[in-house]
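User: These chains co-purify. Model them together.
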Amino acid sequence: MESAGTLRSDAPQETRAIGHALGSHAHSGTLVALIGPLGAGKTELAKGVAEGLGVTSVVNSPTFVLMNEHAGRLRLFHIDAYRLEDPDESVAAGLFDERQAAGVAVVEWADRLADRLPAERLELTMVPEPDGSDRRQISWRAVGSTHLRLANEALVPR
Amino acid sequence: MIVAIESASSEPSLALAAADGVAFASDGWAGEGRQASELLPRLLVLLARAGRELREATALAVGVGPGSFTGLRVSMSLAKGIALALRLPVVGVPSLGAWLEAEPRAAAAIARAGAQDAYLLTRGESEPRIVAASDLSGLVEGSPVAAPSEMAAAFGLSGVLPPHAAAAAIARLAALRLRTEPRGDDLAGLEPWYLRPPRGVASQETVSRWP
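Assistant: Joint model of the two components:
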């Protein structure tokens, strides 16, 4: 079960709004995988997810600690794979444990995890326009019933 | 006295057994994934209720998994810490086999493998395998299974027997091993068993599950 689509964001606050919609509609077991270069808006989107989940603590990129946990409507596991040198390190570090089945996980630099990333996920690839503007092309791909439902509720225009 | 610790799921267990492996005190409970703050205090209460002291221990027995990532790390650390401090042998015992040993009615033992998959040990098989959690109810087809209660609710499993007596079974199995291997396992080398690291999608196009 898989679906896909494309969105456009013209500004950081639009990227954050996309995250907010995801956080508002997220179900337990949601895994949001973010791919894109530095400055593409991954953390902005993660902050939006946190807002949508009602997280009140400060959300920053967990670049050095690898994973932060935040209390919200559902528990948010915010993961940053930027500093991993090998996908297998994500296993040794326990970045994907069974507690995430009852929460929401957001992974920045998800492409660095290659096939260590769990199969069922909502993957968003954020591509800045070459003109150097704030405009981003965001393509998404949802795998598994939980993520199909989430994409349908939060990303598909109605 | 053998002190046995099992924490491969959110329903951990503890047991105190005589040197022959027969448990005389045990505890098992549905926790909330807080083994780091539950296991040691409950072990101390179990010892106090039995009128025993930790320094009377002669060996540690610990479930090695597969199962909960952090749960196994907590129980392994606790068992190794006590063994190191008291200079005692430690014996690692496969968890899911012990769950089946503890629940003779169970046709299989099931634990979580990450957020999306499960470890399944069917009675009669020697090794557990990883399956998609969403396939579980079809695989066990209503047979009684040893599994944490939260998985019963999440995956529509009926006839679930929580593994609260698993530590007593681990003490029995460890006593058997200590008869022939009195030094137990290598303290530094013993580690949690996750079967194999999770493997997700192979490519952008095809969606595959862990085998």
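The beta strands of chain A are 2-9, 30-35, 67-70, 76-80, 104-108, 122-128, 136-143.
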